[in-house]
Amino acid sequence: MTDSDLKRLYPISATINSKNHFTIAGSDLSDLAESYRTPFYIYDRDTIHENIHRIRSAMADFYSGPGTIAYASKAYLSRKFASKIATEEVDLDVVSLTELRFALAAGFSPDRIHFHGNNKSIEEIEIAVDQNIHAIVVDNMDELLLTERIANSKKKVAQIWLRITPDIRVATHPHIETSAATSKFGFHIINGDAANAIEYAVNSSALCLTGLHCHLGSQLFDPLPYQIAIEKMFDLAINCNYTPLELSPGGGWGVPYVEDDPDSNPEQWVKAISETITKKCNRYQIRLPKLILESGRFIVARSGVAIYQIGTQKKSVNGEKIIAVDGGMSDNPRNALYQAKYTATPVDQSVHSRKNPCKVVGKYCESGDVLIDNVMLPDLNYGDLLMIPVAGAYQLSMASNYNLAPRPVVLWLEPEGKVEVLQERENLEQNSWWD
């Protein structure tokens, strides 16, 4: 492992101690494995704090209007993790009733919460209206009418954004692209739905349209699509004689997962967005809206590491070395869903044998249960610990109980070896399935 890889892919507190073991925030991962058993995940506080600081500093440098950051809770959320994020003074995007309840229980004030989703239930909208959350992000006309009806029934005014689909393609996996003309999300511009929604919302006495939102997709490294989307949203709004008080161009800014991935520079992203908004506002002679930048992956992906224990090993008939670990697609389905790439390294860095190409697989009864298709690893033994970095986003939040596997324990690490359990390992024998 090079110093460059350590700085790009691992938590900022990651080091190798005198035993040649990986440590994070002063905790030896081998010691944590003895205490908590594998598989387990860690989140590094300092990395999360630093990533939020980078986005916030870039907004201060490049955007002269008001602005804030919203953490996209779908990347990962638990009750205790919500409490940690709440201390960072960011807003929170939620997409379900449980996420909303976690947010409120963790101390997020309703005016820092945005409720997303393309098919919100009546109960979800009712609670969002009752709680006076900052924005119900309305996705379609059915939902717009439903929100209006619920607000009317409660004699309240619901504060909303409209999710606008700019009908553009972006360079990412089709399953995480959300802005094309075929997308299931949002009011499309090209067919007139977006203009009709703005007109309806502006004229409704039960709705307060404060802003527009869009989301292009995930794992983007080019700011140009954001600029195009912002231009389209401003042109749409002005053509409808509407001036947004708030604008959210979404999130999705990418992070490197393997050595060959490009660097992730949020300053470039924030600068391009800020300059485009400023240019459009100057052109139309309107005031700068409040800018809300959503970020889930960039904030937490690098802060997370997954640690597994190696089990059986074999060679396939074509000579490929296959290493099985005690987790897999139940805690990380991203390779199976998106062909996502990862790297791995032993927790014990004293192994210096020549590296060979390996496939890292899980233990579950599914051919697609592959964590890493190809990675160079030294010779390892049964029981050795293997760590996979950049594991903080869209792994645990998409985890399952396939083969009735329990979800792993999740740890929060702070400097000087401070460890806190964010999420206990599941005990399915205490689940109703067992009864």
Layout: helices, strands, pairs:
Elements: H1 3-9, E1 14-16, E2 22-24, E3 27-28, H2 29-36, E4 40-44, H3 45-62, E5 67-72, H4 79-86, E6 91-94, H5 97-105, E7 113-115, H6 122-130, E8 135-138, H7 141-153, E9 158-165, E10 187-188, H8 193-202, E11 207-213, H9 224-239, E12 246-248, H10 266-284, E13 290-295, H11 297-300, E14 304-315, E15 321-325, H12 334-338, E16 345-346, E17 356-361, E18 370-377, E19 385-388, E20 409-414, E21 418-423
Parallel strand pairs: 4-20, 5-6, 5-13, 6-7, 7-8, 8-9, 9-10, 9-11, 11-12, 12-13, 15-17
Antiparallel strand pairs: 1-2, 2-3, 4-14, 14-15, 14-19, 16-19, 17-18, 20-21
Helix pairs in contact: 3-10, 6-7, 9-10
Structure characterization notes:
It is a single chain. The protein is α/β, with parallel strands linked by helices and 435 residues long. The protein has two domains: 167 residues, Lyase, Ornithine Decarboxylase, Chain A, domain 1 (Beta Barrel), CATH 2.40.37; 255 residues, Alanine racemase (TIM Barrel, Alpha-Beta Barrel). It has twelve helices and 21 strands. The strands form three sheets. Strands 4, 14, 15, 16, 17, 18, 19, 20 and 21 form a nine-stranded mixed sheet that branches. Strand 1 and strand 2 form a beta hairpin. Helix 3 packs parallel to helix 10, helix 6 crosses helix 7 and helix 9 runs parallel beside helix 10. The chain is elongated, with a radius of gyration of 23 Å. The protein starts with a helix and ends in a 12-residue tail after the last strand.
